[in-house]
């Protein structure tokens, strides 16, 4: 089994009308054995900025800590919050700095910028970044997730509809993947705040 | 350690019924059960497959390992048992089905990847369960469990199995064990199929209730 499918993950982020949503599965496995069903893969870096990390579990945790450290340094020096675009670029640089011995993680950045406009980006494990206006996916079942997003996505969805679309896209995708699933978690970020809901999924 | 598609003798792209299969006897018959997931590596190729093959009126086989190999094997055994019925004028014995399967698996052990459970009822022995392992070992057992997911329920079955259960108790135990295995094993999942085999007839059922998962803190 390849190093990117060793622990299993599925993360989707979508943009709506003045809001973004990011959803992930909850499984942590060792190849085909499930170890935990509450492993966090989405991390809130700032009130309206989330990072989703899909890939090798140890690198997910390490990179989360490294990102937090770098963000805190930035806030101390710059005396302002980090915008999603800056975080995305910084993450890309961190990953490329390990070009020949990479972190085995493919991250997603989702948030609202200073004018509450949605921001979405994804990158590969060595930092090639791609900013998107509609949706981004990462994990062990990206084929499934792309199919679901292309079919279900509509532009300018309100928060409730965005939640439903994200939830359905994620749950159907992980049902066809043996190493992701076992529940889900969805965060919807609007200018008022963040709504977090847990998804009840198939426990298989 | 764990068998992924790469470490089993599966060819590139070949599908595996990485699986959990069980057979539990009760008074007057046997309940066989299986999950329904067929996977190629981590992709779930079929999520409602039927791994319980009918070999004859009162004999069923549960398939695990390579889907192609086990389908071919059960087709052969079904054909042989039909011939036996015509030649002898009597329904085939579970023992005959199991030993025919053993012969096929043992003589082709280098080219096959098949772990199967043959279970059923016959007028000579009553309920009987045979387990046929990868190399062609054939063992008559009081109850059987096999497949990648069976590792997670060995303790559960050892502690909960009792002789002379009723049909409902046996079915409930089969479903409970399969649900636990499907929660922990990535290559088992989907629906729980069960067949209760008795002298009077067979009763096929399925459920998609999976109430168990690893406990979170």
Automatic annotation (TrEMBL), chain A:
UniProt key word Hydrolase: yes
Pfam families from the UniProt entry: Proteasome
Intracellular or extracellular location(s): Nucleus
Upper lineage: Eukaryota, Sar, Stramenopiles, Ochrophyta, Bacillariophyta
BP GO terms, sorted: proteasome-mediated ubiquitin-dependent protein catabolic process
Keyword Nucleus (UniProt): yes
GO CC, any one term: cytoplasm
InterPro entries hit by this protein: Ntn_hydrolases_N, Proteasome_beta_3, Proteasome_sua/b, Proteasome_suB-type
PROSITE patterns: PROTEASOME_BETA_2
EC number per UniProt: 3.4.25.1
Protein name, entry field: 20S proteasome subunit beta 3
UniProt keyword annotations, A-Z: Cytoplasm, Hydrolase, Nucleus, Proteasome
An example Gene Ontology molecular-function term: hydrolase activity
Originating species: Fistulifera solaris (Oleaginous diatom)
PANTHER family attached to this UniProt entry: METALLOPROTEASE TLDD, PROTEASOME SUBUNIT BETA TYPE-3
From TrEMBL, chain B:
Subcellular location: Cytoplasm; Nucleus
Domain of life: Eukaryota
Pfam families: Proteasome (PF00227)
Known catalytic reactions: Cleavage of peptide bonds with very broad specificity
Keyword Membrane: no
InterPro entries from the UniProt entry: Ntn_hydrolases_N, Pept_T1A_subB, Proteasome_bsu_CS, Proteasome_sua/b, Proteasome_suB-type
Residue positions of the active site: 19 (nucleophile)
CDD domains the UniProt entry points to: proteasome_beta_type_6
One GO location term (cellular component): cytoplasm
GO molecular function: threonine-type endopeptidase activity
Similarity remark: Belongs to the peptidase T1B family.
Matching PANTHER family: ATP-DEPENDENT PROTEASE SUBUNIT HSLV, METALLOPROTEASE TLDD
Function (record text): Component of the proteasome, a multicatalytic proteinase complex which is characterized by its ability to cleave peptides with Arg, Phe, Tyr, Leu, and Glu adjacent to the leaving group at neutral or slightly basic pH. The proteasome has an ATP-dependent proteolytic activity.
Assembly mode: Component of the proteasome complex.
UniProt protein name: Proteasome subunit beta
Species this protein is from: Fistulifera solaris (Oleaginous diatom)
Lineage: Eukaryota, Sar, Stramenopiles, Ochrophyta, Bacillariophyta
């Amino acid at each position: 089994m390849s190093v990117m499918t060793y622990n299993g993950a599925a993360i989707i982020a979508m943009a709506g009308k003045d809001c973004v949503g990011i959803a992930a599965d909850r499984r942590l496995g060792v190849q085909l054995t499930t170890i935990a069903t509450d492993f966090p893969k989405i991390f809130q870096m700032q009130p309206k900025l989330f990072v989703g990390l899909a890939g090798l579990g140890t690198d997910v945790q390490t990179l989360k800590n490294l990102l937090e450290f770098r963000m805190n340094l930035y806030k101390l020096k710059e005396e302002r919050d980090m915008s999603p675009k800056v975080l995305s670029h910084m993450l890309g640089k961190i990953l490329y700095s390990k070009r020949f011995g990479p972190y085995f993680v493919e991250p997603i950045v989702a948030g609202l910028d200073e004018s509450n406009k949605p921001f979405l980006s994804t990158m590969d494990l060595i930092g090639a970044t791609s900013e998107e206006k509609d949706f981004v996916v990462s994990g062990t079942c990206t084929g499934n997730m792309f199919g679901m997003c292309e079919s279900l996505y509509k532009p300018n969805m309100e928060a409730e509809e965005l939640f439903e679309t994200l939830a359905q896209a994620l749950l159907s995708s992980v049902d066809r993947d043996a190493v992701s699933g076992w529940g889900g978690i969805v965060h919807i970020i609007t200018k008022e705040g963040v709504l977090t809901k847990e998804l009840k999924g198939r426990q298989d | 350690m764990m068998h992924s598609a790469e470490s089993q003798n599966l060819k590139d792209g070949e599908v595996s019924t990485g699986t959990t299969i069980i057979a539990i006897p009760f008074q007057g018959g046997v309940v066989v059960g299986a999950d329904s997931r067929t996977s190629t590596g981590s992709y779930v190729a079929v999520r409602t497959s039927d791994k319980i093959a009918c070999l004859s009126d009162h004999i069923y086989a549960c398939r695990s390992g390579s889907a192609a190999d086990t389908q071919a094997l059960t087709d052969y055994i079904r054909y042989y048992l039909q011939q036996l019925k015509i030649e002898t004028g009597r329904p085939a014995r579970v023992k005959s089905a199991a030993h025919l399967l053993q012969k096929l698996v043992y003589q082709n052990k280098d080219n096959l990847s098949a772990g199967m459970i043959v279970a059923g009822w016959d007028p000579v022995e009553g309920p009987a369960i045979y387990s046929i392992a990868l190399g062609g070992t054939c063992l008559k057992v009081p109850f059987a469990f096999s497949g990648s997911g069976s590792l997670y329920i060995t303790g559960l079955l050892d502690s909960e199995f009792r002789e002379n259960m009723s049909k409902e108790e046996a079915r409930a135990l089969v479903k409970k064990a399969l649900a636990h295995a499907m929660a922990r094993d990535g290559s088992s999942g989907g629906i729980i199929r069960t067949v209760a085999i008795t002298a009077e007839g067979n009763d096929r059922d399925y459920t998609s209730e999976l109430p168990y998962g690893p406990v979170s803190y």
